[in-house]
Write a structure and sequence with these properties.
Largest sheet: 8 strands, mixed
CATH class of the largest domain: Alpha Beta
Bound molecules: flavin-adenine dinucleotide
Number of helices: 9
Shape: globular
CATH superfamily of the largest domain: FAD/NAD(P)-binding domain
Strand content: 15-25%
Helix content: 25-40%
Oligomer: single chain
Number of domains: 2
CATH architecture of the largest domain: 3-Layer(bba) Sandwich
């Protein structure tokens, strides 16, 4: 059995229900694994990380299979905000330089950029229709002080800055105090992108299984084996790509090393041109604000507005209802002209943090043949896809050609073991106070 650290509700249909993306395209039908199957490489988890790994391996001629516990797009990859942007670490660049040195930080940052370009290339190469929009990403100041800091940052980097009073004239009207745009990144429909990756991986020869959870995992002389309810998969090399849906025992090495955290999103009905004008938000830019507990939002090509934020710390029907009410009230505060606009869809899902605040992508220490990619700190559209590309090289025993920082290869344990979620309320309270 999978041993997970949130209440069962977090892993069920409750938080997942009413996700807008489900209505935008049908899921592909993958078979269930119903026999013992042997492949060169087995992958556990069918999100961006697992499918990108599978695609890159299959294209290299490797016999690869993915087992997904639920249905295609069930995890975070099928229910996120669709921001394909820089990010992946929660560690700031100054702290990263202090802890890991300048060179490592530069390699990490080159990887972050390459991750966005990788998604761009995958979409183009495989002809994926993913409803993309936005030129780069815009950060909105939530306070006058944050606005002044953004202005200084823009002066130092040459980025575009828009002053508070000019925001609405630039289509960025809301309760904000300035905006700065970074030229890299774009927004997409994550479900269409994910299924595009899946189709490309299948065409290249990967086998994809749904409703086939790995219930346990073990190694013997012949390699790695995972048991599923109706079958078994065996492989010389195995990749863990389960991120926020990981278990303490698959593999046991993961116990205490990852911290799932929830994020919640709402989508409105399409806004008319008049409604958009009334709020002054007509821009196609994807945006987030400067709060530590940040909001992220964008007007999608069909006129619907997507608005998300870090979710609650508890998971139950009551906690879910509470966070959805809070999300709505934050939206109303920031975009007062849209108070009466119906939010037709709202849902939540799991992201994943690590103790050292950087992703883990690499071979699992002291477990020959075992690899993992996870902990993108809520930014896995680009970084999860990129992790898949790195993992495909590593699994084949190659040194990745793409930037691969050493800091991706350590994953220290959190204190408190399975009770480590107790660390989060004080951390969130502190971040909330800082805002
Ligand atoms: C609400 C929300 C909004 C987000 N917004 C953004 C955003 O705008 N931009 C961005 O970059 N990132 C965003 N993220 C984060 C992003 O979605 C994730 O970082 C990314 O999808 C992780 O991909 P993954 O493949 O590693 O994991 P997932 O997509 O979570 O996939 C893991 C899969 O593993 C499966 N699994 C788990 N255990 C087993 C097992 N034992 N056997 C078989 N399968 C198993 C699960 O069923 C799941 O489908 C958001 C996340 C959420 C929840």
């Amino acid at each position: 059995m999978m041993r997970r650290i949130f209440p069962d509700y977090a892993y069920g249909t409750g938080p997942r229900s009413n996700c807008w993306w489900d209505e935008t395209c049908p899921a592909p039908v993958w078979p269930e694994l119903d026999r013992a199957r042997e492949v060169d490489v087995a992958i556990i988890g069918g999100g961006f990380t697992g499918l990108s790994t599978a695609l890159h391996l299959a294209e290299a001629g490797v016999d690869v299979a993915v087992i997904e516990a639920e249905t295609p797009g069930w995890g975070a990859s099928g229910r996120n905000g669709g921001f394909c942007c820089l990010g992946g670490a929660k560690l700031g660049s100054r702290a990263m330089e202090r802890l890991h040195g300048r060179r490592e930080t530069q390699v990490y940052q080159a990887g972050e950029e390459e991750a966005v370009h990788l998604v761009e290339r995958l979409i183009a190469r495989h002809g994926i229709e993913a409803d993309t929009h936005s030129s780069g990403e815009t950060v909105m100041a939530h306070s006058a002080k944050a606005g002044a800091a953004l202005r200084r940052a823009a002066q130092n980097t040459g980025a575009d800055f828009i002053d508070g009073p000019a925001l609405a004239a630039n289509g960025l009207g809301g309760r904000f105090h300035g905006a700065m745009t970074t030229p890299l990144g774009f927004a997409l429909n994550p479900r269409k992108y994910l299924f595009g990756l899946a189709a490309a991986a299948a065409t290249a020869g990967a086998t994809l299984y749904q409703r086939s959870p790995a219930l346990d995992l073990w190694q013997d002389d012949s390699g790695w084996h995972a048991r599923t309810p109706k079958g078994r998969i065996s492989a010389k090399r195995l990749v863990i790509a389960t991120n926020g849906y990981s278990s303490e025992n698959i593999p046991g090495w993961l116990a205490g090393r990852y911290m799932p955290a929830q994020s919640t999103v709402m989508v409105t009905r399409p806004l008319t041109a008049d409604e958009q004008a009334a709020q002054g938000w007509t821009s196609a830019q994807m945006a987030y604000d400067t709060r530590h507990m940040l909001h992220y939002f964008r007007l999608m090509p069909d006129g619907r507005f997507l608005f998300g934020m870090r979710g609650g710390l508890m998971s139950s029907p009551r906690a879910e209802a509470k966070i959805r009410t809070a999300l709505r009230s934050h939206f109303d505060r920031l975009f007062p002209a849209w108070r009466g606009v119906e939010a037709t869809h709202m849902w939540s899902g799991m992201v994943c943090l690590s103790r050292n605040l950087v992703p883990f992508v690499g071979s699992v220490p002291d477990h020959p043949g075992l690899f993992a990619g996870l902990c993108y700190h809520g930014n896995g559209v680009a970084m999860g896809s990129y992790a898949g590309r790195l993992l495909a090289d590593l699994v084949q025993g190659k040194t990745p050609e793409a930037p691969y920082p050493d800091l991706f290869q350590r994953m220290p344990r959190f204190p408190l073991g399975r009770a480590r979620r107790l660390l989060m309320p004080p951390a969130y309270a502190l971040l909330g106070l800082m805002d």
